[in-house]
Specification:
In chain A, about 10% of the residues lie in helices and about 25% in strands. Chain A has four helices and seven strands. Chain B has nine helices and 19 strands. The two termini of chain B are about 35 Å apart. Classes of the chains: A alpha+beta, B alpha/beta.
Amino acid sequence: MLKTTGVPNDQDLDGVFPPQERLGKGPVVVVECFETIPCNPCYTACHFGGIEAFKDITDLPTIDFEKCNGCTLCISNCPGLAIMVIDYQYHKDYVKMTIPYEFFPLPKEGEWVKGLDRRGEVVINVQVILVKNAKHQDKTPLISIAVPKAHFKKLRNIEVGDSNDQS
Amino acid sequence: MMHTDILVIGGGPSGLSAAIAAGKSGAEVLLVEGNQYFGGQLVKQTHMFFGSEKQYAATRGFDIGKKLVEEVEVYDNVKTLHSTTALGIYEDGIVTLEQKTESEDVYLKVRAKTIIIGTGALERSLPFTNNDLPGIYGAGAVQTLMNEYLVKPGKRVLMVGAGNIGLIISYQLLQAGVEVAGIIDASSEIGGYLVHASKIRRSGVPIFTGYTIVKAEGKDHLEKATIAQVDRHWKPIPGTEKEFKVDVLCISVGLTPSSALFWQVGCEMEYVRDLGGYVPKRNQYLQTTLKNIYVAGDSAGIEEASSAMVEGSIAGLSASHNLGFIYEDYQRDIQELLQELEGLRGGEKGEHIRNGYNMVGF
């Protein structure tokens, strides 16, 4: 499926999502990297040893969920834009999801945007909590959105514009 | 007549890296590039590179180009000529060059002890009905228009080819505000990196594997494209056609090594499908069957720019070493580079390249 459509299925995702127990302990990374390509910036970007050392540059990243503190530094260093950070403890009804977003216009904090799934289809409108676009991110801005807990495994992208109300 | 130890033909990632390595070794180097600027295709690459820190991973392609050009400028023994095309290599070893200046085209001759050829690749095309309608572009042209001249190629694009170039350009089109109606590929699986495919897919662009382009239609320019599913023999299956109203078709069906100079000078050549076409035979140091001719980058076989840079460094170091230039860390550096290259060719996506390289060694 992934190899013919570019869309990972539930089984693919189950393999990379942190266990529910870890989600309950605060922000943590989700790395949707399924293919052994030569690439290791996630490992070199991490200051906390949250991604284990690569034996081979084509290894898939192995996450040490205890060491990862969800700092978000690796997100804008991933050439594949395959990383996001989930903060399940953000609110009782919402997770805070931080994703890379390289399109103009950038959303504004507080703005409502369309929340898209991995096929680019609208799941639900979501509110933007934070927009980070620092120099060290090198043109890969980070957008944090509040996602209802029922949908957090489905969302992976946003569309800006035409969504200025909650409905 | 100019004289130099090493002439590097092509100022892309491999040629720049070769010039830096040879410059570091102390050789007199002349680097020539046909375009007005150095960097080759790096100039148009707005995405972050893969690989490791050593090949500038997570840095954007155009920034890597700038870094390489800055590094070349460090060495006084490396001279550069832009807007200068190598025309031919003659039997007596003299290379002729055509340099475009503002007022005239100048004909130059250069004698080099060793030549490193990093001339890159040419785009493949595809035969289908009306494939010459305005609005049908090669992928390189779309990238040049958008990222170099800041001109949108059109309003709505159908991308033909789901290799890395097709996927990356589709993403850049979206970033430029151009609609991408879909990406098709005759193969049953996506050829490019899946992370590229996923990021385009989650922006709502469908990917149709197992489809080919059948025909283009339009009065003065492209208005409609028809695709169809292919059978096991790559023939379109009647009744499976889909139509797209698009004003741009972007053809991204692969590259073939630019091999003219190798043929002319008489290097032993081999047709290697996995490397994209005819390539010169060479040893692991990129030396061809002619001792004083080296190859690096896409002209040695189609690969990523990361590998092109490593190959350029190996060729530059080895060529200088063979000319007798003493570079203390030669053994250590060349071994490290050979290992880097092996690493970059690992994994499932590197399999065809590994197969290809088994056919060109001697």
